[in-house]
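Record 1 of the preview.
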Amino acid sequence: MGDHDMVYLTLDNKVYVDGAGCIENASAITGTSMIERLSKLVASLDMREEDLVQACYPSTDCNPTTTISVILVDESSKNRLEAFWATLETAVVIVVLLAFMYLFHRGVRRFSRMLLQPLRSLVDDMTAVSSLDLVHIDADRGDEFKYGEAVHELQDLQTVFKRMRCAIRSWSKFVPPSVVEGLLQTEKEASLEVEPRKVTILFCDIDGFEDACRGLAPNDLLSLLARVLGKIADLIEHYNGTLLEFIGDEVLAVFNAPSSHANHVRAAVATCLHIHHETAELPGFHANGELGVRCRCGVHTANMLAGNIGSQQRMKYGLLGDGINLCARLKGLNSRYGSRTLSSDPVLADEFVRSRFVFRPLDLVAVKGKKQPTTIYEILGFRQDPAFTEKARLARLHGEAFQSFHDRNFVGSKELFTEVCAGFQALGLADEPSKMLAKRCNTYIKCPPPPDWDGVERLTKKSFAEDAAPAPAPVVADGGNQAAESSAATSSGTMVQGLDTPAWV
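->
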């Protein structure tokens, strides 16, 4: 029977096949016995129902009273063969699908490598440009891709974008990054416009730069200058300031413009102190390479106009207002008082600054070009620094002496200034401000000022060079020249002794 094995066969109540083989002489059997035998065979074979096929005649339900013929066939071999071919067919289909998936994956990877990956890279770069993160990314980072002829336009797009990226990187080195970022975010062309803003200005330069750099080769000078100015620029950026420009060895920075800064006064003062700390460890501007770069800083808070200034064809981000001039004067006055950081009244009006920094008043001056006198303060250090505990005490004593001086108690203030000077000498420091004010007290003790004396030192020059002769401070009836100049001249050397001649002489 081929794939079929006959197990039981009865025809007209005669048995022809029963179990293992055929019966030569068919024996008669009743319908009931026929059905009972069929049931026993099915039970003894222990096979799946789908592997056994049985049929009865004429009753299809195998009724013992009417059934005269029965057949039982084993189809397990046929089912196994069909299962084999079905499995083989499934395996072939799976192999074909895997091959298709492999080829499809290769095609997708090639498509991604040729088109999608470069597009994603361009999108990332464009996003970086919009947030100006691109400024801090290496320009030559090797993000070149191999393109086929079909995407030649994409290769041109990446080349053009790379050129634009390099141009923006270069541009951001000339323009404050915050300004560039603002232009990219506003999505409009720069125009001449300013806005009123309360800002803190920081002016800084290298003390004695002109004299110290004489004799240095140009490349050596440029390398040393770049190292110092780079350190200063990093500190300004660290405290979220905006570096506006380099003027020779000078640095002009502003805090709270164009980006807002809630604690801009504190940030500017802290930047000054860290500038002194960081640059002191750099090689000096001397042929022997000795250490010791000394910087001078001026800090001033004022209401200014901040924005794009210049002409329609060429402009820059800058500040307009007299505050820059005063800040430049403060920076230059460091040479007169032998100090390193001078600030104005508005800076010390900030409660946070008063509570976090050690300071003392040095003088009440009307700088060249200004009528209004300004109390100038020296910022000595951070109040929480244990090294400044004694300096903080001397600063308080100096403040008492300063107040006593302006109360015309010249004898008492002289004693206090002398005590302050001795205290700094005990720390191994020469304190020129207390010496200067003690000498001024001595002068006023010998020759008291008139009743309308206001204690203001009216300065007639911007810079104070080394070994300059002391000059009297004449009374300026009209307050001096009101046209303030844009920047303090770079000076060299140490302080000039104080004006020992009374202002009223």
